[in-house]
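tool_call: predict_structure(chain=1)
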Amino acid sequence: MQFGIFTVGDVTIDPTTGRAPSEHERIKAMLAIAQKAEEVGLDVFATGEHHNPPFVPSSPTTMLGYIAARTEKLILSTSTTLITTNDPVKIAEDFAMLQHVADGRVDLMMGRGNTGPVYPWFGKDIRDGIDLAIENYALLRRLWDEDVVTWKGKFRTPLQSFTSTPRPLDGVAPFVWHGSIRSPEIAEQAAYYGDGFFHNHIFWPASHTKQMVNLYRQRYAHYGHGTPEQAIVGLGGQVFMRKNSQDAVREFRPYFDNAPVYGHGPSLEEFTSQTPLTVGSPQEVIERTLSFRDYVGDYQRQLFLMDHAGLPLKTVLEQLDLLGEEVVPVLRKEFANKRPANVPDAPTHAARVAEKSEKSEKSNTAESK
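tool_result:
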């Protein structure tokens, strides 16, 4: 199982100081956070993609390429790649290039995003959102899987004998997760291709997450990729920790109360009772995270949101120390102990290359008989 962090890259005023970081400071902080993630033993760093204030990560591959040069083991991912408004040809080329730069330590998460105005900014119509996601991803798969592509669709100009360059590293495209909070069509798409499904698991109650993951698992099996238990699932989550839970609540409350995404709404206590947000001690985070398995089953990736709502970099780095030293080692052990043998590990480039080689050998053996 993989553990890591994901960022939305918000530039938010720190309510305790009244100061917001500059865009430059925020970008540099995200780079420092990614490098800290590897230092404390996490597996994954993922960044969102946004094209509007107050967010700064408009070019994820630029950021991840920089991080690739300064890390050795960390898997570099997006927590949203806008499959609706990005050109599939550019996605294919950008992420194949990043694969080579990072020696395979790359995957990505397709999503439609949650900012409606982004569609006309890139010449698209939000009413076509689902159709764009389906058509663009179908083309992307072909661009990675086929050396020469001739294609015609509804939303972009046709391609005639086109080759996307560079080709995926080792002939294996980056692993793809499909992220969705509320769209069953996206869970269906992930299942159809046998890709991973990621539920960000932040604003919705457990019952909703369970419903979406179960839909994906059942449809994954329907398309013949394996049993429902073998589907590849990832979850998000939000945590804030201090050694003492009362200290955590006291320190985090002003950030929660003023955060653009959930401030001035339900109280912190109401929100933590109704969603997976956990504010407390490392032990409380461990217990809450282990409980996710009760309603989604065994899963492959757990990402935490930790650098949001105006929290200063120093505080986020302290959170990562707690996560890496006290929380993740226990979670690794407990999840592994409960994991049935038939549940697959989280996908990695090396494992997928080996799988491809094994299939090729079996095919060649069958042909020779």
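agent: The chain has a mean pLDDT of 93. Proceeding to next step.
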